[in-house]
């Protein structure tokens, strides 16, 4: 980096930026033509009015929405004392669950999932070590 830095410094020293008299006069004329900005009270008043107008409009819209939403609100229907569904299984459906054709077993995914978790942990550790090496090399 030292050689590159020295070359950059040498190139910067070799640059000779000169401002012509014409450009200097134009810059001076532009600077003289600039007027300071005067604080305007009219703009602040109009901004405050706009803020109040938008706030009041938003409040009016929210109130109108609440009124329209609740305008035709109906009372909820009375609760029925009749149960919606029976909680027991009918006798006819019990024969379906005891069929010799139907053999229900619980799937065992624990072994493959544990292996996959171990592989992911190993990949994570390798990536962490790779990043640590890169950072040590860089800095």
Labels describing this entry:
5 helices; 139 residues; mainly alpha
Describe this structure in words.
The structure is a single chain. The protein starts with a helix and ends with a helix. By secondary structure, it is mostly helical.
In short:
The chain contains five helices and no strands.
Helix content: 55-70%
What is the average per-residue confidence, as pLDDT, rounded to a whole number?
A: 77
Spell out the helices and strands N to C.
HHHHH
Name the overall outline: flat
Task: Determine the oligomeric state from the structure.
Answer: single chain
Give the CA-CA distance, first to last residue.
14 Å
Topology:
Elements: H1 2-14, H2 21-33, H3 41-71, H4 91-97, H5 110-138
